[in-house]
Amino acid sequence: MFMAEEQEWANLLAEIFEKLTQKHASITYDFEDLAMNGRVEKDGKVIPTGTVALTGKLTITAK
Q: pTM above 0.90?
């Protein structure tokens, strides 16, 4: 189940990047205390893989 969600996010990001590239655009995300808890499902059990925390800006520029 979690892998399907990750694939959906990967597909969405790929589409966004493609559109940015076509328009030579950039996009900036501003995060404040964003925390993402990673996890995988194996043998019917949920296993935590770590936490990523982000505060600041992320800019993606396509040329």
A: no
User: What is the Cβ-side half-sphere exposure of residue 56, based on CA atoms within 13 angstroms?
Assistant: 4
Q: How far apart are CA 59 and CA 62, in angstroms?
A: 10
Query: 62 or 18: which carries more pLDDT confidence?
Result: 18
Over residues 4-31, mean pLDDT: 83
Distance between CA atoms of residues 1 and 40, nearest Å: 9
Instruction: Decide if 60 contacts 17 (C-beta within 8 A).
Output: yes
Q: Which two tokens stand for residue 48?
A: 């935590």
State the Cα–Cα distance between residues 51 and 1, nearest whole angstrom. Answer: 19
Q: Which two tokens stand for residue 36?
A: 């993402």
**pLDDT tens, residue by residue, 42-52:** 888 988 888 88
